[in-house]
Amino acid sequence: MRVVVADDVMLTREGIVRLLKDAGIEVVAEAENAPGLLREVRLANPDVALVDIRMPPTHTDEGLVAAQTIREELPQVGVLVLSEYVEPTYAMRLLQEHPERVGYLLKEKVFEIATVVDALRRIVDGETVIDPTIVSRLLGRRRRVDPLAELSGREREVLELIAEGMSNRAIAGRLFVTERTVEAHVTQIFQKLRLPESPDQHRRVIAVLTFLRT
Q1: pLDDT digits over 24-38, tens only?
Q2: Cα separation, 13 vs 6, whole angstroms
Q3: How far is the C-alpha of 18 from the C-alpha of 12, rounded, in Å?
Q4: Does the pLDDT at position 183 exceed 70?
Q5: CATH topology of domain 142-213
Q6: Are the C-beta atoms of residues 116 and 20 closer than 8 Å to each other?
Q7: Which H helix or E strand runs over 209?
Q8: What angle separates helix 179-192 from helix 203-213, to the nearest 10 degrees?
Q9: Least confident segment among 20-34, 70-84, 85-99, 122-136
């Protein structure tokens, strides 16, 4: 896996790079601002760009805007954005137009390198990975029209874990059920959300996006 790392704080960037390299990830370039990130991604064509949301000059959403540009110009390149803050609105901005091959993790998770590596691999596979804290915050929002109303409590639980980027096997382990039981729940989720099987759609990603929008 080839990754470009962008963070304006040199020590943080070097720390992330070191952890990724120790985990066997090839870091092909580094950047300290959004223009540099876009330049390096266009040159290196990595599998994933790992991006801090708040970058110079305003330290607001430059990294997020760059991430959206990458998804528009280079759809084969995945994006994993990191944030110091729980910002559900930023997560939704990233997902609205490009729900596949994207992830959003709190920056503190970089110290849990196994979590970061797992997220990168899932993004390469075309999945969506959202930090559980963000999922919980989104769950707390009041729903006016709830497309998930038909789901059972266990099906909602399974969908929440899918939104966190967990595989069926991992969900089975978390819920102490068999993987076949999880597969049955996922099938029911797809049916109740009216997501027919299609070669042009990643139903798992669309289900997660539906979940986050409610």
Answers
A1: 999 999 999 999 999
A2: 7
A3: 10
A4: yes
A5: Arc Repressor Mutant, subunit A (1.10.10)
A6: yes
A7: helix 203-213
A8: 70
A9: 85-99
